[in-house]
Amino acid sequence: MTKIRTRIAPSPTGDPHVGTAYIALFNRAFAKSQGGEFILRIEDTDRTRSTPESEAAILKSLKWLGLDWDEGPDCGGPHGPYRQSERQSIYQEHAHRLIQDGHAFHCFCTAERLDEMRKERQAQGLAGYDGHCMHLSEDEVNRRLADGEASVIRMKVPEEGICELEDELRGTIEIDWKQIDMQVLLKSDGMPTYHLACVVDDHLMEISHILRGEEWISSTPKQLLLYQYFGWEPPVFCHLPLLRNADKSKLSKRKNPTSIDYYHALGILPEALLNFLGMMGWTMPSGEEKFTQREMIDNFDVKRVSLGGPVFDPEKLDWLNGRYIREDHTPEQLMDRMMAWKYNREYVDRFLPMVQQRIERLSDAAPLAMMFFQGLPSINAASFEPVKLDEDELKKTLQLILWKLETQRHWNKDNVMADVKAVGDHLGHKMRDIMAPLFIAITGQPASVSVLDAMAILGPDMTRGRIRHAIEVLGGLGKKKLKSLEKEFQQIAAFMD
Fold first, then answer.
1. What residue ranges are annotated as transmembrane (predicted)?
2. Do 107 and 145 form a contact (C-beta atoms < 8 A)?
3. For the segment 168-182, what is each residue's pLDDT rounded down to a tens digit?
4. CA 211 – CA 39 distance, rounded (Å)
5. Number of alpha carbons in the 13 Å side-chain half-sphere of residue 374
6. Which 3 state secondary structure label does DSSP give 253?
7. First CA to last CA distance, the chain
8. Residue 162 backbone phi and psi in degrees, to 5
């Protein structure tokens, strides 16, 4: 019998996402329920966006949740390396094997030609690459390569017919090959794209089952074709329902906080968050909503996964977290959890010097320190009455600051200040007019300790969560204005840096 082996393969290009934890939980629960193994692999082939800081944050957050793995970049294993950036020669070898076997080809098309080709094909109702370089002679290909001409390697796909893929939850899915592009497998810099790397890695790491989000269904034909080209047995595919916002849209940080670190900063217990994610599309046979990871593993049956879009409801998470706090802790144990969370000397030492400069009695410290422990400040639209900006400009300013801070990859006071100033300069506002609403959004008060220092201490997730909350209490921007502003932000973001 084949050993059950599942994996989670996050890209270290941002904050650790609750969607990553959701997929990791179901992969681990399935593997462990079958006496199998769970592997962590880092997909860091995007060299411009991947960072060691993001990788470290992902590993730390998954371990905080109790989602440990049997093999990975930190603990090794017999199928390493477990970072794709360290496996480049493996992918290059397999890409050239596909060329030799007639399943792939060098493509020399320039970006300009590809743009023009896409426009022409869209006008004809067609999609994907037109096969321009597929029939170049071997002599011409070798000559152009010898001349140092840049190229990528693309896979060949059938021009007609239907791809039938079997899904553990959904049965047979049919996708017309005409919808499938001649995917780039190896980029001009020698790095692989996702499709080549994941197929090669999943095979060499002996992954037996792939549980992933349903957004990958449309990519599965390309991957099945690669398995066929290499002569490998494909794994079992199981596409899980996506986490969704209340309006059924895909869960995103534009509508809900999605960082695992945000929920940690909010005071959510790891076992409660993991339990909550387990409830997303799956239920215990008994119907009990509160269960441990061990109980989930002991009762796990992938056939019990519901295909209805699970709604990520923060109020339900708070309710469940409250049950854990009340039902699973003595007062002494709760104090230990609070001390480990934020009520500790190391954390207090970070903001106490600022508080010290603003108090005359010891009792004055509590109101100033409170905002470092609370989740979202108790504010409403009236809280912003002291601000000079009119309502529309206020919401626009906060929204642009939020989006600018979402691009910040190195969180510290100076970088936060630079982002805020960049927005102010773009809008033509004085800094004091920009800082006033920030004070209220972040601290809940029109004046407090240095708001920039506070943002640095609170961290990116809580800071952005509070700004997002402030925009919500002000009524938001509305879909049309938000879309227009987002387009404006994309146009001017580069000039803000």
1. none
2. no
3. 999 999 999 989 999
4. 12
5. 15
6. coil
7. 56
8. -120, 135
Residue 135 labelled as part of a binding site: yes
pTM of the predicted model, to two decimals?
0.92
Q: What angle do CA 256, 261, 267 make, to 5 degrees?
A: 90
Contacts of 395 (CB under 8 A, 6+ apart): 471, 474, 475, 476, 477
**How far is Cα 399 from Cα 476, in angstroms, rounded to an integer?**
9
Enzyme catalytic residues = 253
Hunting for tokens 């700004």 — which residue is that? 467
**184 in Cβ contact with 107 (< 8 Å):** yes
Closest to 209 (Cα-Cα) out of 434, 435, 36, 398: 36
Tally of residues, the chain: 497
163 is in an annotated binding site: no
The pLDDT of 123-149, averaged and rounded, is 92
Residues 439 and 445: beta-carbon distance below 8 Å:
yes
Name which residue leads in pLDDT, 308 or 133: 133
Tokens of 207: 């992954």
Cβ atoms 281, 169 nearer than 8 A: no
Report how far residue 276's alpha carbon sits from residue 293's, in angstroms, rounded to the nearest whole number.
Answer: 11
Q: Which helix (H) or strand (E) holds 294?
A: helix 293-299
Q: Does the annotation place 253 within a ligand binding site?
A: yes
107 is in an annotated binding site: yes
Q: Which of 299-308, 311-320, 393-402, 477-486 has the lowest mean pLDDT?
A: 477-486
Q: How far is CA 87 from CA 47, 79, 153, 477, 484, in A?
A: 13, 11, 17, 45, 42
Closest CA to 30 of 306, 303, 312, 309: 303
Q: What is the 3-state secondary structure (H, E, C) of 157-226?
A: CCCCCEEEEEECCCEEEEEEHHHCCCCEEECCCCCECHHHHHHHHHHHCCCCEEEEEHHHHHHHHHHHHH
